[in-house]
Structure formats: structure tokens, C-alpha cells
Design a protein that fits this description.
heterodimer, A: 3 helices, B: alpha+beta, Alpha-Beta Plaits, five-stranded antiparallel beta sheet, 15 strands, disordered N terminus
Amino acid sequence: MGKICPLMGPKMSAFCMVMSVWGVIFLGLLGVFFYIQAVTLFPDLHFSENEQGAGKVPTSQIESKYNEKATQCWIAAGLYAVTLIAVFWQNKYNTTQIF
Amino acid sequence: MGDYVTPGEEPPQPGIYRSEQMCLAQLYLQSDASYQCVAELGELGLVQFRDLNPDVSAFQRKYVNEVRRCDEMERKLRFLEHEIRKDQIPMLDTGENPDAPLPREMIDLEAKNELREVNKNEETLKKNFSELTELKHILRKTQTFFEEVDHDRWRILEGGSSSRRGRSSEREEQAPLIDIGGDIEDDSARLSVQAAMLRLGFVAGVIQRERLPAFERLLWRACRGNVFLRTSEIDDVLNDTVTGDPVNKCVFIIFFQGDQLKTKVKKICEGFRATLYPCPDTPQERREMSIGVMTRIEDLKTVLGQTQDHRHRVLVAASKNVRMWLTKVRKIKSIYHTLNLFNIDVTQKCLIAEVWCPVAELERIKMALKRGTDESGSQVPSILNRMDTHEAPPTYNKTNKFTKGFQNIVDAYGIATYREINPAPYTMVSFPFLFAVMFGDMGHGVIMFLAALFFILKEKQLEAARIKDEIFQTFFGGRYVIFLMGVFSIYTGFMYNDVFSKSINAFGSSWSNSIDHTTIDALLDGGEKSSETQLILVPELAYDGSPYPIGVDPVWNLAEGNKLSFLNSMKMKMSVLFGIAQMTFGVLLSYQNFTYFKSDLDIKYMFIPQIIFLSSIFIYLCIQILAKWLFFGATAGSVLGYTYPGTNCAPSLLIGLINMFMMKGRNAGFLDERGEVYPQCWLSTWYPGQSFFETIFVLVAIACVPVMLFGKPYFLWKEEKDRREGGHRQLSVRADIAQDDAEVVHAPEQTPKPAGHGHGHGDGPLDMGDVMVYQAIHTIEFVLGCVSHTASYLRLWALSLAHAQLSDVLWTMVFRNAFVLDGYAGAVATYVLFFIFGSLSVFILVLMEGLSAFLHALRLHWVEFQSKFYGGLGYQFSPFSFETILAEERQNEEN
């Protein structure tokens, strides 16, 4: 393999690999919990001033918010999957350089 | 007071609860067989040799020469290894363990060592080579100097002063070497100068470039400017003749006049370590010499090439074996070292050794001795003879790779006294548990668990990789400890219902919304002022009566107002329960020790008052805690014979404990005769007869103190007195009629005196002062310790609170921001913030918090738990074993 874009050393790439695997699992699960509208995640929802309006937020809006955050988590999980592939390639590239 | 059992008569115990039974034995080895026998014992690694000639210095021992030879050999091999490494030849290191070789193999090894000569030859050759190269450079450079001089001389002789005018316009490099005649006007003077110049002497040589300026200055000063120095840098990098390092050098040539200056110049050259080379005067000779040098250099190059080839071949051949040779030599050395500890019999035919060895392994040791004798071909068998001793044997706890980490934790505090209860098996359970109580979070537990699992699964590869990093080695060495800590953390995290500070509603919360929608709507529509009012779920209505099946109800995670007051109360009480349970367990273990060492006095006047003291105050407190949890709920009713009006009257245990000591009069029950609730009803007594019982408890506890303090010393004193009187009674006076003198005969002592454990009942007269001081210290330590240690266990609550809060902060302050943004920006924010959240979780919450929880768990075991029963006055059994010796050597090598 040629010298293509050596961004990180073996340690850094190993760390990033672990973080990405964790990211995929963690964010995937978090998305699931948002999707099933876990009550414990309610404090994490954020309603802007105009959404909140006159005090009471309608249930439908809360549900859509939950769904939106679930998608958001899954997208981030997808980003980590991409990162994982990139970092895996980096790691492989670096290890072949060493030995 | 009973005496000690002699070793070997007691029933065998499973190894891990106490240290192995040891015995002192004498070995009689034939001189011929001794080497083989010791080698076999070294492979076995189960005996500790005692030094039988401690007075003899290391140089006067029998096998000094052999040890010295081994040292020399080891040094040579290390040199060989160094050379191999320098030439970057891969070394074959299979890590195999060859048997200890026979002594004669040592001679073979010595013979093999031809490398030294090869090296020596090469060094001389290299030295020659570099000297010749230097000479070559000198000849080449001086040639140019001389040519310039000649040219100049011609000019001076022919041109005279006429050339002077033109000279100033000459280019710098063509300037004459010696500027003479500049100030001399008349011809006669010039002629004399010319004559003098023709008699100039010179020396040529080579000097290191960095020394040159100083050299030049010194020459100028010492010779008052009467010498002339000309230098030229050698462009090639030369090798130093001695060390072989690359150096930059300069050729210099010094012109001077007269012998005085010559000696001076030579001395200065010597002082600056300049090498002088003979340089012929005439160009003819110089040319010839130059040619000669060139041919010699060529010759040397071929020879050098051949030598290097040969050396390389030798090194390659050696590289396959050098590690094994090193292992062999180290084994031989350690064997002779051990033989030096032996006593030599008067007849010189047999060596006597004294060894400590585990009783359970005696058969294997005997087998090893037999093997050793057979191998050496000796007819007379080696003899192992057990001896009786009063010395305290060493402590030997068998470990495997799992128990080793925990045994190390215990040993770091102090090696157990011989045959004392070993806290390690209990530590294996309670250490990870107490750690996890402080580290309760499923998410962080899983991280720790997976890391340790990785270490355990990749154990072989990681060991083979020989990673030298100290921090890594610490974690790797404690992988089984970390593994258990991770597993227990997952469990306690499950009980606390915490995963990265979030709860899981696995079984369905027992709480439901009891507030009707109109109230909520009114609150929400109320606007500004309503945001400060909080609604409360009333337990009587919102709680369905059956608790959450296991762990903390997830509803508490959402209770912003009173989450902490609930968790704090629960965790604090829980810490007290765990702490007192562990301390009581420690005191019970001390009973095991006392029965094992058959010391009735300790049981009667230490253990029993201690347990009574502990029960009447602290275990009573635990029971109160449990009773409060069980009986005082949210609903009013009749509890333990009293009418209980509601939660506001749930008894306050801490103030209750203080009142118990103050023996303060308190209201009985929560209601007065008229059925009204007392003010401060939580201070009332809450079961019939509480004041009476508590008074009794306090009095009993106080009564225990003098028993602990004076009981044992008194009985020791009494026993001592009896013994002295009895001793007098056993005296008999035998008067001989025939002779004048009478001899006093002591009746022989019936019971052999125990050695080691215990205080003041060893040999010699009883020192009442010592015993009293010792007892007073112990009593005060125990009584005060019970109080302070119970308080100390509250760290379980404090650290667990800190951990939970920190992870909560990390979630709300860092990760929650990811959800403020919407759409794709939100996804990217989640991506970035998760990375930060994850890294901080690992480095701060798992590593740093984990370290602090580890240290606190360590303290709780060393101080709070082990102080109840553990002496830790023993010394470690360190058997003679090749395995440990080789491992140590390897470690030394790597550092």
C-alpha cells in the first residue's frame, strides 16, 4: 500500500476505533430509546420559546420531537460507522508500515 | 492457656485459608551429587535455603571461583549480545527453559567464545586503518602547504621587494604562507631571514576539529607567536581510532625554528591529543610515502572486509544460542551461589543444608533429590531430615494467576504471621464489592469489564509482547482484579439503576401519576409564578404498594427535587450496614485465629467482650436501620405497639443513638394520652421498653472495656505467679552426704513453650509493663476504632454520591447540548459531543474515579477490616527457584 494520507499513528487509530465502535452501539441504542419515547430522556428534549408557546406543549409535538432526536442519533451513529471504516483503514495502513 | 500444636499433627486445611505448613529440614548431600540435587530443587522451586555460614564473607566461601567464572562468562555473553544487537542480527529468543547444565558444560561454553579474539583483531585492524587514512590526508594536505611555501620561497628569492607592491593585489588564497620582509627594508636583513626560513622545522598531524581554536590560541601564547600554524579541514568524516565513533578532524602543520620550540610544540600537541605523523621533507619522499600508504590502505581494506565477514558469521552463529547460553550460565551461577550457603561436613564428603519447605510438598522434594542423586551416578542417597525448631517459619501462600492479584493486595500491607488466617480469599469478594459500591454505574462497569476481558483473553499475546510501559503493566497485572471490579460495578449499577446517569425502567415503576390533569393544566397555564411551585407525588396515592422488584425505582431519576435526599439516606444507611457487617466478620475471623493458636485467654477476654461491645452498640444500630426501613412506611397505622401518625414521626436514628448514650428521658410512643402527636415526635422511643434495653446495652458495652483492658494481663500475671511458685515446688534439694555441696535440680519443664504469636507469653519472664501497654493500646484502638471505622465506611456513600453526580454533570452539561440543535446540525453536534462525552467518561469517570474508588477500597480493607484480626508479622517464603531468578534477571536486563 502506498503512502496515502497517513493521518494518525497506531495508538490514535486504535483509540478512535474503540470510540467509533462504542459510538455506533451507544448512539444506536440511544436512538432506539428516543424512538420508544423513554421517559428518562424527556429532560434531554429541548423546546424553543415559540414551540413552548403558551406553557403547555401538545403531546403530538413531544412525540415528533422524540422521533426527530431518534433520527438525529441514528445519523450520528451512521457517521461513526463511516469513521470506523476510515479509522480501520488508517490502522491497517499504519500497521503494515510498521512491520 | 494451651500450648501450640507441633507442625504436622494438625489436620490439613485447604491451602488458601491459611499459609502452607512449613518445616525446617536438613539435607545431607554427597559432594558429588550436591550440584545435581540443587539443580533439581531449583527446577522444583519449593525450598528456601538458609545461610549456614553467615559469618563467612562472600570471598571466603567454597565455590567462590565457580561463581566468579560464571560472572565472567555472563559478562562475556552480555557483551556478545550487545555486539549482536549492534549488528542488528535478529536474536532467537524462544524463551525455552533448558535444564541446568552439568558443570563441565561451562568449559564448553568458555571454549566457544572466540568472538573476543575476532573483535580484538578487528579493533587493531580498524585502528591501523584509521591511522593510515589520517596519514593519507596529511600527506595530501601538506603537499599543498609545501607547494605554497615553495612557490613563495621562489618568489622571495627571485622577486625580492619588487613583488611586494603587486602582492597586495593578489587574491587571498594566493597570499604567501610566511609574510616576511614586509617590514624589512634592507637586503642584508632580508637575506638573513631567508636563510633562517630555510632552516625551519615542522611537525604535521591531525587534531579534532573542535579542539582547534584552543590549540591555536595556546600555541600562540606559549610560543609567543614564534610558530606558524596552518590548518586544513578534512572533508571526510573519520572514525575515532579508539572508540570508533565518527569525528571531524583537521590536518595541521606547524612551522617553527629551533629545538626549544620543537619540544614545546610537541608537548602542546600531546596535551591536545593530536596525533603526529612523520612527514618527509622532500616532495619526492612524500610522493613515495603517499603511494606506499595507498597500497597499504587497499590491503587493509580487504583484510578488514574479511574480518568483518568472519565476525558476522560468528555473531550469526552465536545469535541462535546466546539466550540459551545466558539462561544456562545464570542457572549454574545460582546453583553455586546456593551451594555457598551450605555447611561442609568435617569429612569433606558431604554438604549439609538447612531448608524451609512446605510439609505438603515433602514427597516431591524427596523425589527431586532422588532424581538428582541418580543423575549424578552417586551410590549414596541424599537424606532429608526434618528438624524441630522454635523459629517462626516463613509464610507461604500458594497462588495462581487469579488469586495472585488479591494476595498481593494483602501482602502489600504486611505478610501474614505464620499460619494466621489469610484475608485474601475474603478480599476476593469484598474488595471488588466495596469498590463497586463506590463505582456503581452499569455503563462505566461495562467499560471496565470489557477492558479487563480484553486483557484476559489476549493474555498470552500481551505477555509475549513484553510491553515495558509501567502503567500498562500495572493494569495488566491486576487484570483479574479489574475484571471482578467491572462485574461487580455492573451489578451495583443495576441496583442503583444507573447507566451513564440514566435509569432503565425494566420492570415497570411502582409509581404512577396521582395528580389530576386539571391541576397540571392550571399549573402550566399559570405562567411565571407557577414555574416555581412544584407538585409532589403523594406516596399514599402515587405508590402502588409493591416495591420495584430489584434495585432503585427508576422514578427517582426524574425526581429533581428530592432524588438526592432519597438516595443519600439510602446509601448512607447501606454503607453503615456493609461496614458493620465487614467489621463483625473481621472480629469473627479473629476467633478463628484464637482457636487455631489455642489461646483461651484471647477468646475469653478479647474476642467475647469485643463481640459484645460491637453487638450492643453497632449491631443494634443496624437492626434499628433495618427496622426503620421495614416498619415505618408512608401510611399511618400501628407500628410495634405504638400508633404511628405518619412519615413526619419516623424515628431519627442518629439523634436516637446520641440519646442512647446520654440516657436521656424520652417520650414513649408518638402520641400523648389525649391522642395528640408530640412535638418532635421523631425523637420518641418507638418500641416498648426501648429506654430499658438501651440503658442495658450501654452499660454492658461500658462494662466490656475494663474486661478487654485488664482481663488478659491479670490472668497472665496470675499464671506467671503460679508458675513461679510451682517452679519452686518442683525444686528438690539433693544433698549428698559424702560431699559438702548440695545441688538444686529443676524438674524438667513439662510443656514446650510456644514461639511467635501472642504477646507476653513467649519465653523469658513476663514483663507486666509491656503487656499492660500493649493491651491498653489494643483496647483503645478497638473501642475508638469501632466508632471511627463505622464513620469511615461512610466513604462508601460519599464516593458513590460523587460518582453519580459527576456522571450526571457530564451528561447534562456536555451531552445534553447535542439535543438542543435540530436537523443535520444536531446530528453533527451529537457526533462531536459524543466523542467528548465518551473520552471524558473513560478518562475522568472510569480511570480517575476508578483509581480513587480503588484506593478507598484498599484503605477499607487494610485499616477497617484487617485491623480486627490480622497480625501481619510474618516474612515471605522465598524459595530457590530458577523460574523467579531468570525472571528477575530478565527484568533487570530490560530496565
